[in-house]
Structure formats: structure tokens, C-alpha cells
């Protein structure tokens, strides 16, 4: 569980930045070279590479180098961590609101 939490924490940290979220969104359309991705953002290539390294170190993207071109690919399985966590939180809160609704609407249960 601790490893799961560390991975989830890393994914949330990586997704906390709007540039990195935009990169993830862009890579959802397919693999793209770092150069093509970087052109879409108003920053230097070294600054952009920090975002790429953060996404890669947290498992959200993979990069493959072919000659002088580094291509980024979205790791959709890593996004499933967030989806699973959100689904678990949704189940917990729905169960709580269901119990509250039952408590409020069923007077016989309240006695």
C-alpha cells in the first residue's frame, strides 16, 4: 500500500502543473517528438525537458530515442492509478451520503 501511495503521490505531483497536464493531453492523441511538443509551449527547451523528466520519472510517459529524435508516448496504465483512486473515493462518499439520506428520511431508524 505504501508503494501504491508513493506512486499515486508522484502522479498527482506530476499532474499538478498545467504544462505537464497539457503534455499528457497532447500525448493522448498519439506519440510526439519532444521538439514538436516543446514548440507548443513558451519556454526554453531545457525548461521544457524538466517537465518531460518529471512526467517520465513518475511513469506517466515513456520516451524512446531514435537517432537525434526523442519521442514521448503516454503511459495510459499509469493514469489508471488516478482513475482507481477517484473511483474508490466516489464509492466511499456515495455510501456515506446514502447512509445519511437513510438516517434523515427513515424516522423509525432514528429511534
From TrEMBL:
Domain HTH arsR-type: 1-94
Superkingdom of this protein's organism: Bacteria
Keyword entries, A-Z: DNA-binding
GO MF annotations in UniProt: DNA binding
InterPro entries, per the entry: ArsR-like_HTH, HTH_ArsR_DNA-bd_dom, WH-like_DNA-bd_sf, WH_DNA-bd_sf
NCBIfam families the record matches: HTH_metalloreg
Entry protein name: DNA-binding transcriptional ArsR family regulator
Amino acid at each position: 500500500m505504501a508503494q501504491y501511495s508513493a506512486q499515486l503521490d508522484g502522479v498527482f505531483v506530476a499532474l499538478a502543473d498545467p504544462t505537464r497536464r497539457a503534455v499528457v493531453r497532447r500525448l493522448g492523441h498519439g506519440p510526439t517528438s519532444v521538439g514538436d511538443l516543446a514548440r507548443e509551449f513558451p519556454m526554453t527547451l531545457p525548461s521544457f525537458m524538466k517537465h518531460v523528466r518529471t512526467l517520465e520519472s513518475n511513469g506517466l510517459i515513456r520516451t524512446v530515442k531514435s537517432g537525434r529524435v526523442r519521442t514521448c508516448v503516454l503511459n495510459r496504465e499509469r493514469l489508471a492509478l488516478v482513475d482507481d483512486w477517484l473511483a474508490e473515493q466516489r464509492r466511499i462518499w456515495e455510501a456515506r451520503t446514502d447512509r445519511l439520506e437513510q438516517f434523515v428520511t427513515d424516522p423509525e431508524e432514528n429511534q
